[in-house]
Amino acid sequence: QIAITGPSGEGKTTLLRLLLGLVEPDAGKVALRGDSGNNYFINAGTRSVFAYVPQENSIFSGTVGENLRLVKPEATDAELEEALKIACAWEFVNQFPEGLEHRLSAGGRGVSEGQAQRLAIARALLRKAPILLLDEATSGLDIATEQKLLQNLRRCGLLRTCILVTHRPESARFCSRTYEIRHRQVTEVTHEA
């Protein structure tokens, strides 16, 4: 897991958008380096290796199950349950009288911000993309829930890499590497043991 930190407005979200190929760099090229050392230049085709959870609430009008199946219509209830458990959302979804059939309003009205974020993370996990991008996607969670979720992501085996944009030092320390963006410069941050 990799944390990206830095003050607001320094380019953390822009970095994720560059990785997704949603914006072009002013100069140079953006590439991913594979385990083999080969560079893979970012384009619309490389977008499939990413699952992205933005800062903004991305819950749509419909049931919990319908919201999750947006990325994988054929997903079984067992797959939804697995993703919800990893995202620390199964407990509250299971408490709804209708469970996966619980209706949500657009923008996630009827659930808390943290619950909406966990549902969005569960949806992203269903894509089974090797790289998960979380853009302040855990900001509505308390520290204990966020750390449990990050631990679940590390152990689940669905991801090779999770890139977490965060302002929380506790979250960054939970990641194996941290990079700070400040004054348009990216530097690796070492954590004291």
User: What is the count of β-strands?
Assistant: 10
Largest sheet, order of strands side by side?
4-7-8-1-9-10
Helix residue percentage: 25-40%
Largest sheet: 6 strands, mixed
Number of helices: 7
Order of helices and strands: EHEEEEHHHEHEHEHEE
Rg over alpha carbons = 17 Å
List the uncertain runs.
none
Strand content: 15-25%
| Alpha-beta classification | alpha/beta
What does the overall shape look like? globular
Q: Could you report the average pLDDT, rounded to the nearest whole number?
A: 90
- What is the straight-line distance between the termini? 17 Å
Task: Tell me what you see in this structure.
It is a single chain. The two termini are 17 Å apart. The chain has helices at 12-19, 64-68, 77-86, 90-95, 113-126, 143-155, 169-174; strands at residues 2-5, 31-33, 39-41, 50-53, 62-63, 103-104, 131-135, 161-165, 177-182, 185-189. Helix 3 (77-86) crosses helix 5 (113-126). The radius of gyration is 17 Å and the shape is globular. Strand 7 (131-135), helix 6 (143-155) and strand 8 (161-165) form a beta-alpha-beta unit. It contains seven helices and ten strands.
